[in-house]
Design a protein that fits this description.
The complex is a heterodimer of chains A (372) and B (315). Chain A contains 16 helices and 4 strands. By secondary structure, chain A is mostly helical. Chain A has a 4-stranded mixed sheet with strand order 2-1-3-4, with helices on both faces. With 315 residues, chain B is an alpha/beta fold. Chain B starts with 6 loop residues before the first strand and ends in a 10-residue tail after the last helix. Chain B has 2 domains: 218 residues, P-loop containing nucleotide triphosphate hydrolases (Rossmann fold, 3-Layer(aba) Sandwich); 65 residues, Alpha-Beta Plaits (2-Layer Sandwich), CATH 3.30.70. The chains are: A mainly alpha (372), B alpha/beta (315).
């Protein structure tokens, strides 16, 4: 038993040395989380900002100018042009110069007093996300914005609209808050599997394996020794992603860090065994890369990271329940966003543990200390 | 109590698809000697060594290593057997010291033992001055010494060396063989495969393999003495023409050219083989000096592996 632990420690220490000397791996450990978190956090964004817009203000009163200013102050649109009439707005929409046009008719003050719609938004509706953003603009904020500029101008409208403005800026509707915790699972799935998938294949390709299998090291000892360093790497990456989320995207971490790291640990162990299994199946490092991406895509698409899990067909849901990522997404979103207790999420913890045990056993059984 | 031989193989065979890589190999390797496997590439040397190490399953036959059956008991033999692979198999991104320390821990050496053993191995194989250099930066000869230091780190009773000297210069080869003789003096048994004649001649015993079959085995001296051919050296002005002429003689089994000389193997029952060849050449107008010489290991190898010579190999 003691000798076994010494051998596991020897293998783990050796893997650490390999990692510390391989600049590419080192760059990947820090680079992938950094680049992916920044890309997803900034680019994959379902809240819309700074849509180019034009105004056709035919009323030309103080209140109508206040309305236009209020709309721009929402941040959703950025007024880039002022045109004389609705026809000009339509032309600008057609040529793609703007995606939103605000039309304020000449009888604006009367409409305001009567409580009728005060103007019209012309929206390029090709992108449903843009359309939704513009629609939201027509709801509560308008009278409220106006109200803020000129108290009492909202006339018949209740002044309670100001509350709706706050809801509009609700941080819960910013994408990074939802995306970054999930991204933590996605990045770990990709990097952890990639690193361990090549771990044994590389030794086979470089000829080291022929020496290693003539030593007393056991299959399970080798497997455990190989994944240990990557548990540390996994924790490093999870911490980095969380830190980027907090610092750059104001990610609120509502649950306890103990629960976060506990869940991450179980998850990392489970996907590391997936990498090991790939490593015993692949003949070359290139094959290992291919298998890694083949196993990664369905997880990315079905885990609930890209599309809401509840909206998927039953069959896809059942398949997704097999993936460690599906369970970790629930755990990490629960802990980080909803302050959920890891102990209460046992339904998502035990599938990870089961995955770890089963796949580890498969990988160990697949690995033989033979060349044929 | 009689000690089991280092290796005892009975009808050992290994098939890869349609190719019979090792064909019904039966041999005994006694303890405390250097036993050579001599044969061209593809003669089954590596496959045999891998079967004896328990890395490949035999398709047929059986083998006992240090008295234990392989591959069944291969795990139990790991600490008693050392194996130096044909291709350099240590970690190129680790230093000499790190490579050896890793293996020492895998072989279960104690903490204090490791320090002592590492120092001894690095001194012995002249690696101490470069202990911190990565294995990938070493020359062919240095890599070979590191590989031997690694294979003997746990003081194995039996050492398998698969073409250990194919990538090193003659001086390194000479020193390498000195190390092997030292190891045998200390009680180890060494099985080494090679395709160099001079190395084969240094072995205590030798097995010649050809296309997976054992075609000759014995002490190198005995093999050379008992070669079933008369060896004649011919010195003449036109060796190329002389060679063509002599090959017309049915008694001539094989002729190799060595510079201006010809090295001819004749059927052993021919009377006065050197006069016979001189006479033939004189008839063709070629002035030649011929003399009967002692067979070399190369001659043994040629006789054992050419179709004409097969079957007449020494026992």
């Amino acid at each position: 038993m003691k000798r076994s632990l010494v051998r596991i420690a020897a293998v783990a220490a050796k893997e650490f040395r390999h990692l510390s000397r391989d600049r590419l791996s080192g760059a990947m450990i820090l680079g992938i989380p950094l680049v992916m978190t920044l890309l997803f956090g900034y680019a994959i964004n379902t809240d819309v900002r700074d849509l180019p817009a034009a105004v056709a203000d035919q009323a030309g009163t103080t209140a109508s100018r206040a309305l236009a200013a209020g709309v721009e102050a929402s941040g959703v649109v950025r007024i880039v042009d002022r045109v004389p009439d609705a026809a000009a707005l339509e032309r600008r929409l057609a040529d793609g110069g703007i995606v939103v046009g605000l039309y304020i008719p000449a009888d604006f003050e009367h409409r305001l007093a009567d409580g009728r719609p005060v103007g019209q938004l012309l929206v390029d509706g090709s992108d449903p996300v843009v359309q939704n953003a513009a629609r939201a603009l027509t709801q509560a904020p308008l009278p409220a914005l106006l109200d803020r500029v000129r108290p009492g101008a909202a006339g018949a409208e209740p002044a309670g609209g100001a509350l709706a403005v706050r809801a509009y800026y609700n941080p819960e509707r910013r994408s990074p808050v939802f995306i970054v915790p999930g991204l933590c699972g996605v990045i770990l799935t990709l990097t952890m599997v990639l690193f361990t998938a090549v771990a044994i294949v590389r030794e086979r390709e470089r000829g080291n394996l022929e020496l290693l299998i003539t030593t007393p090291v056991g299959s399970l000892e080798l497997m455990v020794g190989k994944i240990l360093p990557y548990v540390v790497v996994g924790y490093l990456q999870a911490s980095l992603i969380l830190a980027i989320g907090v610092v750059l995207f104001d990610l609120p971490v509502r649950g306890s860090l103990v629960d976060f790291y506990g869940g991450a640990g179980v998850f990392v162990l489970s996907i590391l065994t997936l990498g090991l299994l790939i490593s015993t199946l692949a003949a070359t490092q290139f094959q290992a890369f291919q298998m890694t991406f083949m196993s990664f895509l369905p997880q990315l698409l079905l885990s609930g990271f890209m599309f809401p899990f509840d909206g998927m067909p039953r069959g896809a849901q059942l398949l997704a329940e097999l993936f460690p990522l599906t369970h970790f997404l629930r755990i990490v979103r629960g802990v980080v966003l909803r302050d959920a207790d890891l102990m209460l999420m046992a339904d998502d913890v035990w599938p990870l543990l089961a995955f770890f045990v089963v796949v580890m056993a498969l990988a160990t059984a697949r690995f033989r200390k033979r060349l044929d | 109590m009689s000690e089991a031989p280092a290796i005892q193989a009975d009808g050992l065979s290994r098939r890869f698809g349609d190719v019979l890589a090792v064909d019904d190999l039966t041999l005994t390797v006694p303890r405390r000697c250097i036993y050579g496997f001599l044969g061209p590439n593809g003669s089954g040397k590596s496959t045999t060594i891998r079967m004896l190490c328990g890395l490949l399953m035999p398709s047929a036959g059986s083998a006992r290593v240090l008295g234990l059956p392989v591959p069944d008991e291969a795990e139990g033999l790991r600490r008693r057997v050392g194996y130096m692979t044909q291709r350099f198999s240590l970690y190129e991104d680790l230093s000499i010291r790190e490579n050896l320390a890793f293996l020492a821990r895998i072989f279960g050496l104690g903490r204090r033992e490791i320090d002592q053993r590492l120092r001894r191995q690095m001194d012995r194989f002249e690696l101490s001055s470069m202990a911190r250099r990565t294995a990938g930066s070493l020359s062919g000869g240095q890599k070979q010494r590191l590989a031997l230091a690694a294979a003997t780190l746990h003081e194995p009773e039996l050492l398998f060396l698969d073409e250990p000297t194919s990538a090193v210069d003659p001086e390194s080869r000479r020193r390498f063989w000195e190390h092997l003789f030292e190891l045998v003096d200390e009680g180890a048994t060494v099985l080494v495969s090679t395709h160099f004649m001079d190395e084969a001649e240094r072995c205590h015993r030798l097995a010649i393999l050809d296309q997976g079959r054992l075609v000759a085995d014995g002490r190198p001296d005995d093999l050379m003495r008992d070669v079933p051919a008369a060896v004649v050296e011919v010195e003449c002005a036109e060796p190329q023409r002389a060679r063509r002429l002599l090959l017309e003689d049915r008694a001539v089994l094989h002729i190799a050219q060595l510079g201006m000389r010809l090295h001819a193997l004749l059927q052993p029952e021919v009377d006065g083989p050197e006069q016979r060849l001189a006479g033939r050449l004189r008839d063709a107008g070629i002035d030649a000096g011929t003399r009967l010489i002692r067979a070399s290991l190369e001659d043994v190898f040629v006789m054992a592996t050419t179709p004409d010579g097969r079957g007449g190999a020494a026992p």
